[in-house]
């Protein structure tokens, strides 16, 4: 059971509640409400009361909070020049009206007795009035005046603070908004100014002597003081290690700190030995959990001490400073990156242009100016396709530009310079997407005139070479035919005449002649392939017939080295649609190779079908090859060793031709081999060459 | 058996004609396509050996002309080219040759082809 207390004690308890309520009000409205509700306490006995705020613009008093006036609307206006409470606004004094019915200008109210009007002041200016009424006449006395004045004063202070806080919050929001959109406004130079402004406001609002803001440098792990106000010296530029001094301490602990008596504090920094501060309050500046700096405020007045409310206020400034520091850092980083990319673009030997979605030039680099002859100024805002196309390339260029807005494209084309001359370019276009929005495209142009010129030259030279080889082969063949033919004739004569010692010499002439002829024919084939003049004559033929024919042709060669030929055919080999002559030539090439490099072994010709493909494999049990020998196997004149030619004969062109023929028909030829284990060459061709 | 050899190269002509004559054939020679066509049309030949690369009219055109007239429509013709390039055989057969061979000739092979064309179909 609570002890029954005296009326006086209860009044004092009510006043304490009132004071506490006002002090803990979070905003101005809350202050008015706390005031009138606190006064409307049973122990105090004020039953009809209201708090008015003077509206500067109209001069009206606008009701903010009330008790006992059930008929009065929430934001009731007492018009300017009417009502008793006007007087308190005019002279800033407390006014007592013992009998309202006799007073001039009284606005009717339910409590028609007496009234007290107490002005509310902030910073010396009257901002409103507290009106207390009683249905009885002469209801108020000196003690009431004292209580009401005290309540009004407390409320006034609270209102002043609430207004400052609201103002500061607004500034925080504004500041944050400003810094969020900083990029072009903010800069390194701006940061100390911003921090100084934040510090100045903090010092004013906290009612402290001075303070400091420091930036944390992650590389050196030090704090650098960036703003300083009234701490007994200009500390700007001072560097503090983590843990050094008040700011160093909070930077390390990441927790705010109040030091009631700085000169007795063991953690103080030698760099602050000469300052005359009494107490210190410091807080870390954090972005998330990352330290970006520290803020401190100081009292040099020994009678002032820091409390939790001060700490709350200080921590309100911390984000402002933290955001300013972070944004400056981000800005510097992004500016550096921007500069870096701008440097890349402007020094790029490749012409770079950016377009908006209308294909108008947004920017271009010096290489673009050089390539097309338009200056940045001339090009900017103009339609790119208007600038650099001719009538002939316009539709193609527009298509590229349109596609480039959608997806990366790559192409080669001819474009027009400002002076009307044409230039061959390789072009690359990619869409530019910012925050998910397609804003245009970036185009890259590379001058390939020289490259194309060189290529045309090379192609012409290559074609001339092939032409030369073709005609030379033809010219060489005619006399060679005679050599071979006449030596054959003479050989027949000699045989008839019975002079065998001449026969072997004539055979040598013939063999050499035929080898030379084969070489010339292969060179002619290769040069035709390389000149792109080798054509395909496609026909449908029986695989079985082809294999039989080839086997017959190659039989003499097989016997030469005492080899045996095995043919493996599927039961129904079926037909294929390809260039018969070339397929035959390929098989003969592979088989004659196998015969040459195999002695007393087996050569196997296998025909298989795999899905739509035909596989023709020639396997031997001959000398085989190392991996290194296989590397250049399919290149022209690349028999595994130069010496093999003399030992095994052959032109060294057969595999090169085989490979090219297979490619022409959409197939390939592969080899598997090991030294001493023989070799397997496999030609894979589409069953129906298209 | 009378063979008309159409060949512009003198040595080839000499060589082939002598070798065929040795085998018992009666060989007459023409030196270009036009002459070859005229002589073939005049009649009396059992077979034509036609080089394909000829001056005036080439072998393909000469063959086509011979196939276009009744008197030589069925005269056996063997096309000869210097090199068995892919397509040469097809082109020769398309022009109307009955068979085809490459130069330098391998006599046994050519003789087999000649014999095959001269022996009446059974």
Could you give the topology of this structure?
The complex is a heterodimer of chains A (690) and B (122).
Chain A: H1 7-23, H2 28-39, E1 48-54, E2 61-67, E3 77-78, H3 86-91, E4 95-97, E5 114-122, E6 125-134, H4 142-180, H5 190-206, E7 210-217, E8 222-229, E9 239-241, H6 245-253, E10 257-259, E11 279-287, E12 290-299, H7 308-347, E13 351-356, E14 361-364, H8 366-372, H9 376-379, H10 384-388, H11 394-404, E15 409-416, E16 422-434, E17 437-447, H12 449-497, H13 500-530, E18 538-542, H14 543-560, E19 564-568, E20 575-579, H15 580-596, E21 602-610, E22 613-620, H16 627-631, H17 642-648, H18 654-664, E23 668-673, E24 679-686
Parallel strand pairs in A: 19-21
Antiparallel strand pairs in A: 1-2, 1-6, 2-3, 4-5, 5-6, 7-8, 7-12, 8-9, 10-11, 11-12, 13-14, 13-17, 15-16, 16-17, 18-20, 21-22, 22-24, 23-24
Chain B: E1 2-6, H1 10-22, E2 26-30, H2 33-42, E3 47-51, H3 59-68, E4 77-81, H4 88-95, E5 99-102, H5 107-118
Parallel strand pairs in B: 1-2, 1-3, 3-4, 4-5
Helix pairs in contact in B: 2-3
Strand fraction band of chain B?
15-25%
Distance, first to last CA of chain A: 108 Å
Count every beta strand of chain B, where a strand is a DSSP E run of 2 or more residues: 5
Tally of DSSP helical segments of chain B: 5
State the low-pLDDT regions of chain B, or none. none
Mean pLDDT over the full residue set of chain B: 88
Total strands of chain A: the figure is 24
Name the assembly state: heterodimer
Major sheet summary line of chain A: 6 strands, antiparallel
Low confidence ranges of chain A: 181-186
Structural class of chain A: alpha+beta
- What's the order of the H and E elements of chain B? EHEHEHEHEH
Strand content of chain A: 15-25%
The portion of residues assigned to helices of chain A is 40-55%
Strands in their spatial order, largest beta sheet of chain B: 2-1-3-4-5
């Amino acid at each position: 059971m609570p002890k029954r207390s005296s009326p006086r004690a209860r009044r004092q308890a009510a006043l304490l509640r009132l004071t506490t309520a006002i002090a803990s009000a979070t905003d101005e409205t809350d202050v008015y409400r706390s005031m009138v509700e606190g006064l409307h306490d049973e122990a105090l006995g004020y039953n009809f009361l209201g708090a008015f705020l003077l509206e500067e613009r109209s001069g009206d008093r606008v009701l903010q909070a009330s008790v006992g006036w059930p008929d009065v609307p929430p934001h009731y206006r007492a018009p300017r020049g009417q009502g008793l409470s006007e007087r308190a606004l005019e002279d800033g004094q407390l006014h007592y009206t013992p009998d309202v019915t006799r007073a001039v200008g009284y606005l009717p109210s339910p409590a028609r007795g007496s009234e007290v009007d107490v002005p509310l002041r902030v910073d010396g200016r009257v901002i409103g009035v507290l009106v207390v009424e009683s249905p009885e006449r002469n209801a108020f006395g000196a003690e009431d005046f004292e209580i009401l004045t005290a309540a009004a004063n407390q409320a006034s202070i609270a209102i002043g603070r609430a207004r400052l806080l609201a103002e500061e919050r607004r500034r925080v929001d504004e500041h944050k908004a400003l810094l969020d959109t900083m990029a072009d406004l903010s800069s390194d130079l701006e940061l100390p100014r911003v921090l100084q402004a934040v510090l100045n406001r903090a010092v004013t609002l906290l009612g402290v002597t001075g303070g400091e803001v420091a930036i944390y440098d992650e590389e050196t792990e030090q704090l650098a003081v960036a703003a300083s106000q009234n701490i007994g010296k200009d500390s700007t530029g001072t560097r503090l290690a983590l843990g050094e001094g008040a700011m160093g301490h909070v930077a390390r602990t990441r927790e705010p700190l109040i030091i009631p008596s700085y000169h007795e504090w063991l953690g103080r920094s030698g760099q602050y030995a000469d300052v005359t501060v009494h107490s210190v309050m410091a807080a870390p500046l954090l972005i998330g959990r990352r330290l970006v700096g520290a803020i401190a405020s100081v009292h040099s007045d020994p009678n002032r001490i820091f409390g939790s409310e001060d700490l709350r206020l200080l921590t309100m400034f911390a984000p402002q400073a933290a955001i300013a520091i972070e944004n400056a850092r981000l800005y510097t980083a992004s500016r550096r990156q921007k500069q870096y990319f701008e440097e890349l673009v402007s020094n790029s030997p490749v012409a770079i242009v950016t377009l908006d979605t209308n294909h108008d030039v947004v920017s271009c680099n010096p290489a673009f100016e050089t390539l097309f002859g338009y200056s940045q100024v001339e090009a900017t805002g103009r339609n790119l396709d208007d600038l650099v196309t001719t009538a002939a390339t316009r539709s193609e260029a527009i298509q590229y530009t349109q596609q480039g807005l959608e997806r990366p494209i790559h192409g080669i084309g001819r474009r027009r310079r400002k002076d009307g001359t044409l230039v061959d370019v390789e072009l690359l276009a990619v869409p530019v997407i910012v925050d998910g929005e397609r804003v245009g495209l970036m185009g890259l142009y590379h001058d390939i005139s020289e490259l194309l010129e060189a290529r045309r030259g090379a192609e012409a030279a290559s074609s001339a070479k092939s032409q030369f080889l073709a005609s030379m082969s033809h010219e060489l063949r005619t006399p060679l035919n005679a050599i071979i033919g006449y030596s054959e004739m003479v050989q027949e004569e000699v045989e008839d005449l019975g002079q065998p010692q001449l026969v072997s010499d004539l055979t040598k002439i013939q063999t050499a002649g035929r080898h030379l002829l084969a070489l010339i024919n292969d060179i002619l084939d290769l040069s035709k392939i390389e000149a792109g003049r080798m054509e395909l004559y496609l026909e449908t033929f029986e695989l079985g017939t082809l294999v039989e024919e080839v086997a017959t042709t190659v039989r003499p060669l097989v016997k030469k080295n005492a080899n045996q030929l095995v043919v493996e055919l599927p039961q129904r080999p079926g037909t294929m649609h390809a260039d018969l002559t070339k397929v035959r030539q390929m098989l003969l090439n592979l088989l004659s190779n196998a015969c040459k490099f195999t002695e007393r072994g087996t050569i196997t010709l296998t025909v298989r079908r795999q899905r739509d493909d035909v596989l023709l494999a020639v396997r031997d049990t001959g000398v085989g090859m190392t991996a290194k020998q296989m590397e250049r196997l399919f290149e022209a004149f690349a028999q595994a060793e130069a010496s093999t030619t003399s030992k095994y004969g052959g032109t060294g062109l057969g595999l090169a031709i085989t490979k090219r023929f297979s490619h022409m028909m959409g197939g390939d030829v592969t080899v598997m081999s090991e030294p001493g284990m023989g070799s397997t060459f496999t030609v894979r061709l589409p069953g129906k060459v298209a | 058996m009378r063979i008309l050899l159409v060949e512009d190269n003198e040595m080839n002509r000499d060589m082939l004609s002598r070798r065929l004559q040795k085998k018992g054939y009666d060989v007459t020679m023409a030196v270009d396509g036009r002459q070859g066509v005229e002589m073939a049309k005049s009649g009396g030949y059992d077979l034509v050996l036609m080089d394909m690369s000829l001056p005036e009219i080439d072998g393909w055109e000469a063959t086509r002309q011979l196939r276009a007239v009744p008197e030589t429509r069925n005269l056996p013709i063997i096309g000869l080219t210097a090199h068995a390039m892919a397509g040469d055989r097809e082109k020769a057969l398309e022009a109307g040759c009955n068979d085809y061979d490459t130069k330098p000739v391998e006599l046994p092979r050519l003789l087999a082809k000649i014999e095959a064309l001269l022996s009446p179909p059974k």
